[in-house]
Amino acid sequence: xxxxxxxxxxxxxxxxxxxxxxxxxxxxxxxxxxxxxxxxxxxxxxxxxxxxxxxxxxxxxxxxxxxxxxxxxxxxxxxxxxxxxxxxxxxxxxxxxxxxxxxxxxxxxxxxxxxxxxxxxxxxxxxxxxxxxxxxxxxxxxxxxxxxxxxxxxxxxxxxxxxxxxxxxxxxxxxxxxxxxxxxxxxxxxxxxxxxxxxxxxxxxxxxxxxxxxxxxxxxxxxxxxx
Amino acid sequence: xxxxxxxxxxxxxxxxxxxxxxxxxxxxxxxxxxxxxxxxxxxxxxxxxxxxxxxxxxxxxxxxxxxxxxxxxxxxxxxxxxxxxxxxxxxxxxxxxxxxxxxxxxxxxxxxxxxxxxxxxxxxxxxxxxxxxxxxxxxxxxxxxxxxxxxxxxxxxxxxxxxxxxxxxxxxxxxxxxxxxxxxxxxxxxxxxxxxxxxxxxxxxxxxxxxxxxxxxxxxxxxxxxxxxxxxxxxxxxxxxxxxxxxxxxxxxxxxxxx
Lengths: 227, 259
Known about the structure:
- The complex is a heterodimer.
- Chain A is an all-alpha fold.
- Chain A is 81% helix and 0% strand.
- The longest helix of chain A is centred in the first third of the chain and has 33 residues, at 17-49.
- Classes of the chains: A mainly alpha, B alpha/beta.
C-alpha cells in the first residue's frame, strides 16, 4: 500500500502545485467569506430576536427567522447546496463557487444566530439600560455596546464554527466547485492511486485547522488582554 | 397649569408588573406603583426614601421611561413624554440617570464611555472638542488620570463618579440617582456623596433614591417617603425627619435611624 511512498507523495505535490494551491484557495474562500456572511446574518437575527419590545412587524420577521433557522439546521448542507445550484439559483448564471459561498453563509448564519443569541443574553442587562439612559437608540446600543461584548463571549464558539466550516466545504464538489477535496479526487482518477492523494488531503485540512487554531488563540489573547 | 419652574412632573403614575404563570390564564399582577404624583422644580433636590420593594426605584425608572408606566403621564419641560415617541432618545439625554450598579460600558475606556453618546448625538461638534470637555469634567471629579483605562480597573467609587460624569456630558436638565451608593464599600461612599453635593451647589435639579439618611437630610430640599407604591408623606427634611406624621414613616425612621 505504501510502496514507493516518497515518490508517490512527491508526484501528488509537484505534478501541478498551482492546481493544488488554487483548490486550497477555493476551500478557504468559501469557508472564510461564508463565515463572514454568516456572522452578519447571525448578528442581525440575534439582535432583532432579543428586542425587548417587538412591534407587530418585528414579531412576524422573527417568526420568519425561526423558520429559516429550523430549515437550515434540519437539512444537510449538501442537500441545500444541490437545491440552490440545480433549483433556486439554477437560472441565475452565478458561478458555482458563489453559490457555494451563499449556501455556507446562510447555513452557518443559522447556527451562529443561536450562538450569538446566547452570548447577547449573557451580557448584563444594565449595559443596554445604560445605553438607553444616555439617549442611544436600540440599534446604536446594540452596535457599540452589546454586540462587541457578545462577540468576545462567543469567540471560542465562533472559532469552532469556522473550523467546522473549513471541513464541511469538502462537499462543494457536488456542484462542480474544485476545492481541495475535489482536486484530490481528480488526481486519484487520473493516477489510479487512491491512498497517497487522500493522505495529502487529510494533511492539508489538518494544517489549515492548526493554522486557524493558532490565529484564534492570538486573537483571543488580544481581545481579552484588557479585562 | 404647570408651574413654569416645574421641570418634571409625574402625574398619577401607576405601574403593574405582570408575572406570567405556567397557566397563562391567571398571571400574577404586582402593583409596584399605585398612583403617584410627584413634582420636581428647578434646582430642587428631591430625595426619595422608603422600604425596599416599596416602589422607589420603579418610580425613578418611570421618570426617564426606562420603565413604561401602566397609567398616568410624565411631563418633562412642559411636554408629555412617552417611550414610543420618536424623539424619546433626545429627551433621555436631558434626563441624566445614575444606576446603583454603575453600568459603565465594559468594552469602552473611561474616555469612550463619556464621549460615545455625545459624539453620536452631536455630529457638528468635533471629536477633539468632546474629548476636551470629557477631560475637563473628569478633572473636576478627580479622575483625570483614568481617561484611558477600562472600567474593570476602577474602584466602585470611581466607577460611580465616572457614571455621573457620563450623564453630565449630555448637559442634562435633571439628574436621577438610583441608590448611587448602595453597591459601594463603606469607605468609598463619601466620594460619591461629595460629587453629588458639588452638583447640588451648582444648582443641578436632582431626584435621588437613597438609604443614606444623613445625606438625605443634608442635601434634600424635599423628602418623599414612598411605601407600598404610594407617596405616604412629603415635605422639607425637617418635616419628614423631625416631625413625621404617619405611623408608617415613624416606624420606618425608627428602624433606619437606629442603625
